[in-house]
Amino acid sequence: MTESPTRNRIDPAMIDSRPKRRPDWIKVRAPSGETYDQLHSLMRRKELHTVCEEAGCPNMGECWGSGTATFLMLGDVCTRSCRFCDINHGRPETLDWLEPERVAQAVKAMELKHAVITSVNRDERRDGGAPIFAAVIRRIHQLHIGCSVEVLIPDFKGSLEALKIVMDARPEILNHNVETVPSLFKHVQPQDHYEWSESVLRNAKMLDSEVLTKSGIMVGLGETMEEIKAVMRDLQSWGVDILTIGQYLQPSRQHLPIARYYTLDEFAELKRYGEEIGFRWVESAPLVRSSYHAAEQVRALSRIHQA
After folding, report:
1. Confidence (pTM)
2. Domains in the chain, please, with CATH?
């Protein structure tokens, strides 16, 4: 693990908790439109959750309006209490083993070419809910032939056994977000460990060298540019192909405050740096989130891989 410099890093305790005025370059379109309404109705009929809704994603209007959504599995209550996340946390209900079929049916009904599946953490289970991920990957491949599947998975506490369950189902993209820099890990996501994230991403490539791996970072929590670039070098050394970088936006006053807003030039600098050190694809902009432009990524990189 790279030791990230802490010089000039903002002390989280000194950050003003009052919401900051968003700069002009951050504009979120309100969800609307016929396609959005149809998708919302479909999700409710099939009793499905999306991370778009649960986490208050700023791109929900754009993505839902174009008929794309990220499915949230394993329930809607997380066993961890990350301080940036708006998903409910507490004691979850038992796993719903019919959920993979409902998700696959929704993917087919939406005629998706690329499905993104994520979940809450289920730390009460030794396998972290990995069999549900495996089931939905296989069922989508069976039911909707030609649709690629991206899974955004928890760290499974670094368990190789749980990861192997997912990898054996052959997702096209294996995604796991580090979210922030090592010096802020315990402040931002108290129950997580940087080493668990490293284990997931390194071992995914070890288990299947052909799978595309992906990770994401939030900025604006008090880290320095030097720390971000150090994490980027770590991720590249772990074999990560795709990197997403976006601005942290405070969901409510109860969540971590924004230390500062990064400029468009700074996002452009991080994109250039990521490409220079060897990432195959870098998305870096204020409203970029993990599944933003995911379909474009898998289509482009699949063509590259086949060339």
Report:
1. 0.83
2. 27-306 (3.20.20.70)
